[in-house]
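S1.2 Input.
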Amino acid sequence: VAFIIDHLFLVSFAYLYSAYEHDTTWVLLYILPLEGAIRYAMSGAIASVVALSLSETGRDIMRQQLWGFDFQFVPSTSFRIGIMAIIGMVGGVMARNLERERAEVEKRAELMSDLAERETASRKEIDAFNQATMAGLSTGDFLEAMRRMINTIGETLEYESLAMGLLEDTGWGPQIRIVAGYQYPQDAIGRSINLEEGVCGPVVASGTPALVNDVRSHPTYLGLAPWARSEMAVPLMAGDKPIGVLNVESPRLNAFNEEDLAQLERLGNQVAVVVENARVLEKELAAVERLTELDTMKTDFVAITSHELRTPLTVIQGFIKTMRRSDVDFSKEQIDGYLEIVDQQASRLQTVVEDLLFVSRIETGAVDLQHSSFDLKDVIEQIVRARPPDEAARISVKASPDVKVVSDKERLTRVLENLIDNAIRFSPPTGEVSIQVWDRDDSVTMEIEDTGIGIPANELDKIFDRFHQVGGSMKRKQQGFGLGLYISKQILDALGGSIWVKSEQGRGSLFTVTIPREPAVAPVKAAEA
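S1.3 Output.
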């Protein structure tokens, strides 16, 4: 209902001011596609654009019929509808993506919660020993939980030595990594063994328990515990899939019998459930954290979008109204100055929309790279010359006279423009910006250093995230969406390059960019972010 009321109110407001030929009150209608995207994702944005298309066409026809104003569907009406469609589609795509991720995370969290509830019912039948085992899961940290659990089991059953290894793929094939031990050599914790090694490897590979009365007679015994003389090991099974091993060792020969092995096997069944449950908890906590991050991102997106679109539109509308005043006789210089400001704000609005569209193309892998050969120093000098004279005077460039690269000139230019613009904006009026280029054998390194406000240490690992701005979106002192560094990193990733930053608060920042001299493969579309 509120969505419909907002449309009726703003559309009525636009119609109310339609009697003035050059009135720009209609720009308020740009808010409605965004509201539709925020409320109902893509369907809301589309519905709003359709409704506004009909409304704007009808309003122009009414203005022609009632007041004799010219009706030009192209370009006047179609331009307004096109901008509304762009805003609506961008907002819709972003909102739809956020909602999809939220739905997936909530679905996973619900599945994890159902699994946890089923496991809770089964725990009622577990005796005091198993309760001690579960006490080791009092922390959300997986490895710490495993350490506590193994210590609890070892103390409860008075094992002389107990260790747990988990199966993982290290890139060299499946291996068993020892993750926790009770009275077990500390230098062995964290070690990985192959499935053909020791007593534990074949146990995991075959899924069959093993009892060794004298480890010295075992052909592949590793001797991680030099004092051990006998050993028993059982696989940890998740269904019919091995996930690890429990291993008990003793300094005595023939320390274990079949009953001990059967007890350890029953324990292994319960420990496997605990391990899987701990992993579920870890994933659930990660899902909750991701959900919180998405919610914050959505809030920041709405806040930033509202600010960045409203501000230039307000300025444009204000100066247009000023120039239309009949009681003031403006000079040509004043009018030119006003028009310059209007043009700047229109360019700012265009940049906002282009950045949002570019991010959308990045995330759908629709960015084409067009490689060509060019001189990198010439590109940097052209960027510097294009800046206002007072800013260009503060920028120094040091580079070899002939730095040829084969890359996407347009995309790389955008990266450098973003970095140089940031260096200027976040430096004091007299601050200097230094650009240096090193030509290496198969790559080129560029450094952009400023003497600005710097970046706090706790922000350094976040500045390349989309919509992130130092200090938070609602506390920022500089305009912008917080997309410049995100876009720059995605472009460099696609070009096979890299970017990193060193910074100290109050002492400036140093951004280092490295790109290959030539692409490793033929130009391809950028991968999904």
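S1.4 Remarks. The chain has twelve helices and 13 strands.
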